């Protein structure tokens, strides 16, 4: 390294360097990481908080996502740290217009965050799409789940569906994923 690349006993990272040896201690991987979706539409009952059953693993680098019974991500041994968690649900109800749709992020059985939409004000009417994303400090054994609450207008019992595909059928309509952040 030329002496002019050193500034105040540190390296100027804005410069370009040509390395001829091995560089260690740089970079990393954002693992464990997972992504899950629905294999089909999931029916939810009007006014009932319901766990979203993301039953299809798109990928799971540490076998830490349960896609068959609990539908949750559990931090594996030795992988405590900061995580980025995200989820989106899309769906529809019939015959009533939607009033409120919430998506809840639960940690160890308790809600720690949510996102809500009033589709009447968003021009959706019978359709909805709501997302959330959070950065979390997680310990080994902590588990993360996604719940939904769909409330159509009016009285009576209506059902809603969380869709596995978006309106054009080509994109995933409901997703749940996350990864460890390199710190």
At the fold tier of CATH, the topology name is: Jelly Rolls
Helix content: under 10%
The main pleated sheet reads as: 7 strands, antiparallel
Note the run of SSEs as H and E.
Answer: EEEEEEEEEEEHEEEE
How confident is the prediction overall: mean pLDDT?
A: 81
Which architecture does the CATH hierarchy give at level 2? Sandwich
What is the total number of structural domains?
A: 1
Account of the 3D structure:
The protein has 183 residues and is an all-beta fold. The chain has a single domain (31-180), classed as Jelly Rolls. The protein contains 1 helix and 15 strands; from the N terminus they run E-E-E-E-E-E-E-E-E-E-E-H-E-E-E-E. The protein has one helix at 119-122, and strands at 6-7, 10-11, 33-37, 42-45, 50-51, 56-60, 65-66, 72-74, 81-94, 98-107, 110-117, 127-138, 143-152, 159-162, 175-180. Strands 3, 4, 6, 9, 12, 14 and 15 form a 7-stranded antiparallel β-sheet that branches. Strands 5, 7, 8, 10, 11 and 13 form a 6-stranded antiparallel β-sheet that branches. Strand 7 (65-66) and strand 8 form a beta hairpin.
What is this structure's SSE topology?
Blueprint: E1 6-7, E2 10-11, E3 33-37, E4 42-45, E5 50-51, E6 56-60, E7 65-66, E8 72-74, E9 81-94, E10 98-107, E11 110-117, H1 119-122, E12 127-138, E13 143-152, E14 159-162, E15 175-180
Antiparallel strand pairs: 1-2, 3-6, 3-15, 4-14, 5-13, 7-8, 8-13, 9-12, 9-14, 9-15, 10-11, 10-13
């Amino acid at each position: 390294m030329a002496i002019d690349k050193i500034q105040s006993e540190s390296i100027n990272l804005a410069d370009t360097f040509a390395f001829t040896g091995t560089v260690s201690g740089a970079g990393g991987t954002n693992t464990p990481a997972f992504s899950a979706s629905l294999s089909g539409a999931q029916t939810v009952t009007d006014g009932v908080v319901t766990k979203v059953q993301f039953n299809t693993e798109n990928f799971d680098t540490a076998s830490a996502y349960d896609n068959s019974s609990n539908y949750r991500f559990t931090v594996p041994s030795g992988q405590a740290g900061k995580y980025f968690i995200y989820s989106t649900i899309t769906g529809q109800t019939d015959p009533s217009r939607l009033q409120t749709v919430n998506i809840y992020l639960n940690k160890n059985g308790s809600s720690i965050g949510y996102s809500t939409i009033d589709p009447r004000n968003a021009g959706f009417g019978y359709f909805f799409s709501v997302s959330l994303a959070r950065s979390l400090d997680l310990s080994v054994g902590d588990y993360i789940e996604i719940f939904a609450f769909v409330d159509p207008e009016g009285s009576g019992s209506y059902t809603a569906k969380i869709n596995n595909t978006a309106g054009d059928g080509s994109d995933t309509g409901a997703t749940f994923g996350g990864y460890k952040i390199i710190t």
